[in-house]
Structure formats: C-alpha cells, structure tokens
User: Fold this.
Amino acid sequence: MKNSIYILFVLLVASACKEQQELPKEWVLSKTIKLEGVNPIGITQLNGDIWISDGDHNRLIKIDSEGIIIQTLDSLDRPMHIDASEGVLFVPLYGTDEIFNYNPSNPQSQLPVFDYPADSLDAPASISVFKKEKAIADFYNNRILYFNGSEWISFGKEGKAEGEFYYPTDVQITKDEIWVADAYNNRIQVFDKKGIFLQMMGHDQKMNAATGIFVSEDEVYISDFENNRILIFDKNGNLRQTLKNQIEKPTDVMIKDEMLYVINYKNGKLNLFEKQEVAQKKQ
Amino acid sequence: MMKKSIITTVFLTLMVVFPTVAQDGRDNFMVQVDGLGCPFCAYGLEKKFKEFKGIKDVKIDIETGDFSFSYPSDKALSMNDVEKQVEKAGYTPMSAKVERANGKVEESSTKEMAKKTEGTVSKNVMVAGNCAMCEARITKAAGSVSGVSNVTWDKDTKIMNVSFDAGLTSLEEIEKEIAVAGHDTKNHEAHTDDYGNLPACCKYERLSC
Assistant:
C-alpha cells in the first residue's frame, strides 16, 4: 500500500513537470486591419497611440484599434520612417530634406530646435530617437548621421563592402548599437556608437529591398519588400521565422504590447501577429 | 456652298482647338524608367525632378516604371535634360516621349537619347563580383564594347567606372555585356547559366535587379 502511494506520487510529480514544460513560441497572424486609402511607409507609437506615415498622400495619421483614422497631419512632403520619444513625433520629410517635430498633445508648444545638419541631407528616409541620441538614414548620400548627445557623426558611403550602404532606408538606435536596413544591399548592418561596423545579417536570405527594421530585446525584424515577407532573426543573425501571411510589399514593423505590427504599402493592410505556443515538429 | 461650309467648320474647329493647346502652355513628358522598385525610389525620382521649377502633374507607377509630368513649354526642357535628371536620381531612362504644347511629338529610346550626348562620358555603376579574377572578367567584358575607352572596377566597393563615347554605345549596352560574362549589374541580371559557369571563387552574392 505504501509502495502504491509512493508510485502514484512520483507519477503525479512527473505529470505536473510535463505540463509545465514550455512549448516553443512563434509569431502567428491574429488580426488584419484594412487601412482605407492609405499607403503606409512607417509606423510608431506615442502614448499608446499608433501613428502611421502615409507617403503617397503626404500625411501622418493616428488610428484607433480598428484602423479608423482619428487624427491627420497633412501637408508633409513624403513622410517616411517615423519615431516618437518623450511625447514628440519625429518625421523625416523625404521631399524637403527636413525633420518635422510635433507634439500631438500640445501642438502649440515650442519644441527644442532639432539641430541636425539639415543642409547636407538628401532624402532622409528614417529617424530613430533613443534618449538624447538620434540617427537619420540619409538615403541618397548612402550614410547614417548619428547624434551621440553632444555631436553629430557621419558614417558609410555607397558600396557593398562592410560598413558601406546602397540606399539605407531605416535605422534604429538601441542601448549599445545602431541597426541599419541597408535596403538595396539586401541586408542588415550593425554598428557601434562610433560608427564602427560590428556585424551584418540577412545577406544570405535572398532579400530584395530590405526596407524597414525593428529591434527588440532578443529579436530583429526586417521587411523584405519585394519578396512580400518579414524575416525574424535572433541577435546573432540566425533566422528564426519567416512571416508571409497577408503580407504584400511590407515597409515597416513594430512591437507594441507584445504584438508585432506589420504595415503593407501595396494592400494598405496592418497585420497584427502574436506569439503563440506551437507544437514541436517531429524530428 | 457645301464646300464653303466644310471649310468654315474646319477653320472654326482649329480656331477652338489650337488656342486651347497654346493657352495650356505646358509640355507633357512620359518616361519609361528602369530600376524603380519601391516608394523610396519613386519619391526619390520625384524629388530630383522638383529641381525643375514649374514641374506639375507628376505621376509615377512603381509597378510599370511609367513616369509622367508636365512642364512650362517656354522653358524648352529637352529630352537630354530629362534623361540626365533620371540618371541623377539613380535610375535608367529606357524611353521617353514628349508632347509639346504646340502639338509636336518627340520620341526617343535610350540609345537615341545617349547619342544626343556626343563625346566621352564617364559613369559609375554597381557590378557584383568577388575577386581579382572577377575584376579581369568585368573589365574585359566592358572593354570589348565598341566605344569604351577606359574601365576600372573596385572589388571592395563593387563600383565600376567606365568612360565611353555616348555616340557609339550606352551604359545599358555595357551592362548587358557584363551580364553575359556572368556578373550582375545594377540594372541587368546575369543569366543563371552564365553565373553558373563562373569559377567557384567568383560565385558572388547575386544582386537583386
């Protein structure tokens, strides 16, 4: 009798352990929202709101959870990959070589002067703001402009070698690095904050126009525009997952509230993916 | 009497039509552009053409490469100016057509446009390759095109600089010859068989054209 109780106890413990074993997670499409009359280029979040740049229509829009436009900022000349920080939206204007700053909750407020080297920009395609740091992807000059909090530096030139660009379209600053979507070299490049090349990834994935990038704690997301897919890498450049469902000419990606947001230039759709546990594939 | 009426009708029609065209006073340009792939390219092309003060009605179709705009006819914008501006934006004009405000129509292909630029021109273009053998193959292929006077290729930057007589050849023809030798260029992808014939050390990462 004592033995039976002991065996039963062992079996229960083993069963409980098995139940607690975590299954691997993958991004799975959970929702698609059609943005009517929008050709989205860039996406960001500000105070919980979603803002999207609509390049073809020269405007910025704020949408609700169903994709309904609830605010519009017009007359922006080709707004591209946008960012937000401390209540302010930062908008690169591709057509006029300017960076537009806007505080939606206090539009009349005087914003600090954004002292980028404006006269030297030629089609700014993206801006990233991280605390006091800023970076701009300078499309036609094939370089990144980076402000480290006290001064601007510039790195990169046209080419295919490490540290060179062929039309960079997106940039993101993280705690220790600067990540660049090197669009027509079809790869991601990573730099330290002195502009020194660290690594590249995605160059072996046959991408065709790597237009938008987002970097999270442990993953890197890139939109592969012509191939209609999102590639997800770990920080070492190992491909973890490819997303294709409902994706058509994607231009940007973003994580918000543990959901992955993908915007598509051609079909005007906003795709939301969430991480779900998936059954392990049989070996 | 009938003949007189017809003549009067035709005359009146012309009086109505021609002043309308003249009042419009704008030339309509239609250009087929190679290399446009994404909105970044399309907006870039539009941006470079904003340097032409007075440009209006700009339309770009990134799927087809069709680019059109109107421009004040009194500024007499030439096909050659348009071609140069397309190249400045980083793309290749394949053909162009302009309907002048006075009703005159001009058309030209890339080759014809290039011929208008008499004399030697120097161009940079990206060509894929890895090594010194690639360099030899690329410069040999480009140099074999009649009209090419000088060619260099940097294996680090992958940029080829080529000088040629624009009256004899064009960058497009030179790029095609390089593609036949097995090397992708910015605007011409080498055939899979030609790429496959390259030695192992020359198997570069394919460009997406």
Summary: The two ends of chain B are 66 Å apart (CA to CA).
